[in-house]
Design goal:
The complex is a heterodimer.
Chain A (H helix, E strand, L loop, with lengths): L1 H5 L6 E2 L9 H10 L3 H6 L6 E3 L1 H6 L4 H8 L3 E4 L6 E4 L8 E5 L2 E2 L20 E6 L3 H4 L6 E6 L8 E10 L3 E11 L3 E12 L17 E15 L2 E15 L11 E17 L2 E17 L8 E19 L2 E16 L3 E18 L2 E12 L7 E9 L4 E12 L3 H5 L11 E14 L2 E13 L2 E5 L5 E5 L3 E16 L2 E16 L12 E11 L2 E10 L2 E2 L7 E2 L2 E12 L5 E8 L18 E9 L1
Parallel strand pairs in A: 5-8
Antiparallel strand pairs in A: 1-2, 2-7, 3-4, 5-6, 7-8, 9-10, 9-34, 10-11, 11-12, 12-13, 13-14, 14-15, 15-16, 16-17, 17-18, 18-19, 19-20, 20-21, 21-22, 22-23, 23-26, 24-25, 26-27, 27-28, 28-29, 29-32, 30-31, 32-33, 33-34
Chain B lengths: L1 H11 L27 E5 L9 E5 L6 E2 L2 H5 L9 E7 L2 E6 L4 E6 L5 E5 L6 E7 L2 E6 L10 E6 L5 E6 L4 E7 L2 E6 L8 E6 L4 E7 L4 E7 L2 E6 L13 E6 L4 E7 L7 E5 L3 E6 L2 E6 L11 E2 L5 E7 L3 E7 L6 E8 L4 E9 L1 E6 L2
Antiparallel strand pairs in B: 1-2, 1-28, 2-3, 4-5, 5-6, 6-7, 8-9, 9-10, 10-11, 12-13, 13-14, 14-15, 16-17, 17-18, 18-19, 20-21, 21-22, 22-23, 24-25, 25-26, 26-27
Classes of the chains: A mainly beta, B mainly beta.
Chain lengths: 609, 358
């Protein structure tokens, strides 16, 4: 795949593999290379967008930046590198699940993932799966889910890659990836390190983003070993340590600091017995945060949650076209923290999935039920169908019920924690179309999400904030994605674009929810000629309301990035690149009082062996 | 240097009028001095971290409100992040911005900014004046119970004059009879004390133990009433609220009125004869000599928002409400002394203080 190496940008690749081609050997191959087998199994009847390694390399090294410019997901950032929360299809950050090799890693305390604590260099690719997925991925998979995957290769080769970046605001990033495999064993190691003074100038002259420095280091290790023809062992481990100053705002200084230490471990054993295949997983996640109001002192509060997961997955192939999977899972979470005390939660669940192909039509049905002592868990389900009208047109239809469970903060917060909370639930419907015409692929989807009993912190009449099951919200919207690539001689072109129109309304007030842009569009264009490559990225973010009475808002903004690169040496072993971000020096904010940087620069050098 | 401009205005104005408490200033009608000489100011604290606090102004006939007067007079700028309180002294208003950690000093008649005080402030809360000095309560680092202080500024040049270390969580501050009383509500923790500061030598000369979490104080003659809300339900042991009456000649507690269990009152206020407070969404009144609490509320509100600011004038009662989710515009409701609604206005975001300047 020599082309691949030349691709500067190869966005939004659709993984719509025809359902018919999923014969046994393909399935087995998927289970071998990927730990999140559900993602692959799903990709027929659902839309799953893949951001591959080459896209991740060309973007800034945080998950926020990659998704901001390459998907319909909106991010609300407390300044560059600060806490970053996602809004997918108009939902909240807690209604977007982040899945690492098949395991939900949203925080047990906040119920969300801070997208600036995930370095993209640690994984091989990222998939974006819009729409509900609680049957497979549990709590919070409502607006959609973001999947971080490590894949195994058994190509008996030794790959090494080192990428070094240096740019404005004393920003340094280093990513080292190495992979080696034999026929039986595959090993990969990924290391990232990222630091920045992040002291960019605010639009008001002589005022800078103070106390916004950050630094993080992450290490990822993935090993797979074939015991014999029918048995495979896999192990993934990821360690992350980050330290950030929480920057001030235009009108307020800050002295605070936040530290994250996360480790994630997953051991998996796959067995293949003719028509029956099994997967047994053991996972251990450990998340710790420390918050220092004044970083000069040692005074801090903290939280730590340890999650153990045991999961078994059995799939039986009744015929070539009918597959049934049962999943049994047990989770135990132990949390302790300054504000939440020590608590434990046990959750058991059972899910059943059916996938059936009938010529041009295929569908999946699935259901899941959890049992836990804390609350009554609803029966979750999903039904998805795909009809292939022709080579050029496919129609998808989906319906699901999803949920979000109360977090440790919701239940046990020392002031206001509420033990009577129930999970919030959401029903959704989706209709999608995919048109393919030679080099074009166009995807168009409409959805409706009705959420009830939302978990919200509201003040009581005595002034104490407590979480309650309150409010109903209806989200509906349209999403469009366009992908095109073409080559004429040595000239290679790529175009990818997304657009989302989002309505997210509180049903009582009929007002748009805060921090949900009505419009968001992204586009990127790549051009390669022999050893040269150039890319242009564009983002339009519509205005967002910052108050629930819709009296206050932030202006819309457009950001453009431009990059050029050239390969050097035998087999192009070296690549030197230069990027200008926010070339038009747009002044913008996604949170009030927190300006984002104007024009800034980055240079990179990549070695491949 | 902004300071020089300030000093010029200081010297050109009659500043050394002997006004001590913010309720007693402005004895001369001064309409010609600016658009805001006569009327009522409402401080809207805005949202933490968003830098969107604002000041609203209600005309003296209580017919028209003008929001965002600070921005209007100061090139569209907000005073800063989380407006905590305003202190009035002579021709000046001191807007204390908690999260910005500063005080914006404006001409009280025109609301034009004169100077910014930043030196010596760390988590500033409330301000009052005595002996040509400004006294500002500060929590310091919220997580550190031992770094709380009162900062003292010389009003002639606004230079920091003294830092007086005090007990945890100094909140309301009030000058009476040449003593400065500081109520220690507790910062991120809880406290139950009143510090008595001698404003001449900057020394805490006495500490009076009152109910848990003293949130407001009023005084009349030689009496000081302190309203404590009690420890909330999430504390180790919940305690009810309490009114403590202190005789200022002896600094002794002379009367205590206890609330029922689980009652956590706030916003103590007074007019000539009566004391007012709020409990949840209701306003209560009792006589200054009463020994017991009233049985029923003067006014009970429902679904107006979170009761967030409260002030009693001679003829009216002002109640400010923040929205339930603390985003968006709040409102101000005005009642007459009998508790009948006179008027209602939309304010800025999260109105927390009403300032009468007559």
């Amino acid at each position: 795949m020599k082309l691949n190496r030349y691709y500067l940008l190869f966005l939004g690749l659709l993984l719509a593999l025809p359902a018919l081609s999923q014969n046994e050997s393909v399935t087995r191959l998927e289970e071998v290379v990927l730990s999140d087998i559900s993602l692959k199994r799903d990709s027929g009847e659902r839309r799953v967008m893949l951001l591959n390694d080459s896209i991740l390399r060309e973007n800034e090294p945080s998950l926020t930046s990659v998704l901001k410019f390459n998907s319909t997901i909106f991010f609300r950032e407390n300044g560059l590198g600060g806490v970053s929360s996602a809004s997918f299809r108009g939902t909240s950050a807690q209604q977007t699940a982040v899945i690492w090799n098949g395991i939900n890693i949203n925080s047990q305390f906040t119920g969300q993932t801070d997208f600036n604590t995930i370095p993209t260099g640690i994984v091989n690719d990222i998939s974006i799966r819009p729409g509900g997925g609680s049957v497979l991925y549990g709590s919070g998979a409502i607006g959609g889910s973001v999947h971080l995957n490590n894949r195994f290769k058994f190509d008996e080769k030794f790959h090494n890659q080192l990428k070094l970046d240096y740019g404005s605001f004393e920003t340094f990033s280093g990513v080292f990836k190495t992979a080696i495999s034999s026929e039986k064993t595959s090993f990969q190691l990924n290391l990232t390190h990222h630091t920045s003074e992040n002291d960019f100038e605010y639009p008001r002259e002589n005022q800078f983003n103070e106390n916004g420095d950050f630094g993080n280091t992450s290490l990822g290790l993935s090993v797979a070993h074939r015991l014999n023809k029918d048995h495979l062992l896999k192990f993934h481990s990821n360690f992350y340590q980050g330290e950030r100053g929480f920057s001030g705002t235009v009108t307020a200084p800050s002295k605070s600091k936040f530290e994250d230490v996360n480790s994630r471990n997953l051991l998996e054993w796959n067995g293949f017995y003719g028509d029956l295949s099994s997967s047994f997983k053991l996972a251990y996640l450990d998340e710790t945060f420390r918050y220092y109001e004044n970083r000069q002192t040692g005074e801090h509060n903290f939280g730590r949650a340890k999650t153990g997961i045991a999961k078994t997955d059995l799939t039986y192939l009744f015929t070539r076209n009918l597959k049934v999977t049962g999943i049994l899972e047990y989770q135990q979470i132990r949390g302790e923290g300054t504000n939440t005390g020590s608590n434990r939660r046990d959750i058991g669940s059972f899910a059943l999935l059916l996938k059936h192909s009938l010529g041009d039509f295929s569908y999946q049905l699935s259901a899941r039920k959890e049992a836990t002592s804390n609350y009554e868990s609803p029966l979750l389900f999903a039904a998805n169908g795909l009809y292939k009208f022709s080579e050029n047109y496919e129609l998808r239809l989906g319906a699901s019920k999803n949920f979000r469970i109360p977090t440790f903060n919701d239940l046990y917060w020392y002031a206001g924690g509420n033990l009577d909370l129930q999970p919030e639930t959401s029903h959704q419907l989706e209709l999608g179309h995919t048109f393919s015409l030679r080099k074009f692929k166009f995807d168009f989807a409409g959805y409706l999400i009705d959420s009830r009993n939302l978990l919200r912190w509201v003040p009581t009449s005595s002034g104490l904030w407590r979480p309650e099951n309150t409010d109903e919200v209806r989200n509906y919207g349209l999403e469009a994605g366009l992908d095109w690539s073409n080559s004429i001689g040595s000239h290679i072109f790529d175009l990818n674009a997304t657009y989302a129109w989002t309505h997210s309304q509180n049903q009582a007030t009929k007002k748009q929810l805060i921090y949900v842009p009505e419009h968001k569009a992204t586009a990127s264009l790549g051009y390669n000629y022999k050893r040269y490559s150039i890319f242009y990225q564009f983002l339009y973010n519509g205005s967002i309301f910052t108050s629930s009475d819709n009296n206050y808002s932030l202006e819309d903004y457009q950001i453009s990035n431009l990059g050029i690169a050239r390969n050097f040496g035998r087999n192009d072993f070296m690549k030197i690149g230069f990027q200008v971000r926010n070339i038009f020096d747009e002044k913008y904010m996604s949170m009030p009082g927190r300006p984002m940087p104007g024009r800034y620069f980055n240079s990179s050098i990549t070695f491949k062996l | 240097m902004k300071f020089r401009f300030f000093m010029a205005t200081v010297f050109s104005a009659v500043l050394f009028a002997s006004c001590e408490s913010d309720n007693e200033i402005n004895e001369i009608p001064q309409e010609e001095l600016g658009n805001y000489s006569e009327g009522i100011f409402i401080l809207n604290e805005g949202n933490f971290g968003s830098g969107n606090s604002s000041v609203s102004f209600l005309d003296p006939d209580l017919q028209e409100i003008k929001n965002n007067i600070y921005a209007e007079e100061n090139d569209g700028e907000s005073p800063g992040d989380t407006g905590q309180s305003i202190g009035f002294y002579g021709d000046y208003a001191f807007i204390v911005l908690n999260v910005s950690g500063k005080i914006e000093v404006v001409d009280r008649h025109t609301f034009e900014n004169l100077v910014t005080i930043e030196n010596g402030l760390d988590n500033p809360r409330f301000i009052d004046f005595s002996n040509e000095k400004a006294f500002v309560t500060n929590w310091g680092d919220g997580m550190d119970p031992d770094d709380d202080f009162v900062a003292v500024y010389d009003l002639e040049n606004l230079q920091l004059e003294e830092i007086i270390p005090v007990e945890e969580g100094p909140e309301r501050i009030m000058t009476v009879n040449n003593k400065v009383y500081v109520a220690h509500k507790g910062g991120f923790g809880f406290n139950n004390k009143i510090s008595v500061v001698d404003p001449n030598i900057y020394v805490v000369e006495e500490i009076i133990e009152v109910g848990d979490v003293p949130n407001s104080m009023v005084s009349n003659g030689n009496s000081l009433w302190v309203l404590s809300s009690g420890l909330p339900a999430y504390a180790e042991t919940e305690t009810p609220g309490k009114i403590t009456k202190i005789d200022l000649t002896t600094q002794e507690i002379v009367q205590e009125i206890k609330f029922n269990d689980q009652e956590h009152p706030t916003n103590l206020n007074l007019d000539e004869q009566k004391l007012y407070y709020t409990l949840e969404d209701a306003v209560y009144v009792l006589g200054q000599g009463d020994e017991a609490l009233p049985d029923s509320a003067l006014m009970q509100f429902n679904n107006e928002g979170v009761l967030y600011g409260f002030e009693v004038a001679k003829d009216e009662i002002y109640i400010a409400f923040a929205n339930y989710d603390f985003t968006g515009d709040g409102k101000l409701i005005i009642l007459d002394q009998a508790g009948n609604k006179m008027n209602e206005f939309s304010t800025g975001i999260n109105p927390n203080g009403i300032y009468l300047t007559e």
